[in-house]
Amino acid sequence: MHPIPTVNYLVLSAALLLIGTVGVLTRRNVVIILMSIELILNAVNINLIAFSRSLPLVEGHANVGGQVFAIFVITDAVAEAAVGLGILIALFRNKETVLADEIDLLKW
Amino acid sequence: MLIDNVLFYVFAALVLGGGILTITRRNAVHSAVSLIVSLLGVAGLYLLQQAEFLFAVQIVLYVGGIMVLFLFVIMLVNLDQAAKERQFNRQWLVALAAVAAVALEVGFFLYRGRDAFHIAEAVPALLPPGLGNTEVVADSLFSEYLLPFEVASLLLLVAVVGSVIMAKKRI
After folding, report:
1. Cα A25 to Cα B150: distance, rounded to the nearest angstrom
2. Burial B29-61, CB ≥16 within 10 A → b, else e
3. pLDDT tens digits for B15-24?
4. Of the N and C termini of chain A, which has fewer Cβ atoms inside 10 Å?
């Protein structure tokens, strides 16, 4: 028996998502913006795992579809971090800054 | 069981506290360390939900892989200058208002729908006899989700090539 209701996990996940969103929208430092994206992806994973437990059983056994999807989300997070940090290094080499609002070449 | 409840709230406090520290610290290294605390809390939640394989993946891949990558990049780009400057951009008030609106929406949804999510409480993780969580996940991953798995490997290949090209001085 699992005593913690799913809705607790959902509230936690929503709170983490909102914290990550605040980070993405308000910080200037690109490194911290990328970290906030990791927070958002983790919020998604908490949701997936929580819902994975309420899936119907397959042949009497637990359904792990949510866990498999969480693995795919982690794969995405890895790819995003690698490419994002690569872009950041290229950007720092060219513009000597990591502050998002100083990179305004496309701004009118 | 009481211990499960206590553990849930401890891990939730780690996750949220680490998250809040991550987005408020001035120094990017402090942010990274707070993010590690948050990710470890998420790993604990996986363990609480009997997702042992994901628990291991979370620690090995996130804490051991991604966060080390972050720390390397923080050392590569000189952030001493950035730490002295203004940390939040000019639209932070608008951003907070927008996020508060979303929070109200999500909170209302969860409040009204909380009775709909009761199914999971009653279902224990039933595993086939003699098999652990890792075997079951692997079974599902390599049979039911084989095509997404292959697509994910292609995505990783593209990411590896892309990040090498991005970080190269001259292509």
Report:
1. 34
2. eebbbbbbbbbbbbbbbbebbbbbbbbebbbeb
3. 999 999 999 9
4. C
Is the model's pLDDT at B107 over the cut of 70?
Answer: yes
- Alpha-carbon torsion A17, A18, A24, A25, what sign? positive
The rounded distance, in Å, linking the Cα atoms of A7 and B119 is: 10
Nearest one of A22, A70, A19 to A44, comparing CA atoms: A70
ipTM of the complex: 0.90
Dist CA B58 CA B63 (whole Å)? 7
Average pLDDT, chain A: 87
A107 close contact with B: CB closer than 8 A: no
Residues 9-68 of B with CB under 8 A from A: 12, 15-16, 19-20, 22-23, 28, 31-32, 35, 38-39, 42, 45-46, 48-49, 51, 53-54, 57-58, 61-62, 65-66
**How far apart are the C-alpha atoms of B120 and B136, rounded to whole Å?**
19
Q: Tell me which chain B residue has its CA closest to the CA of residue A82.
A: B163
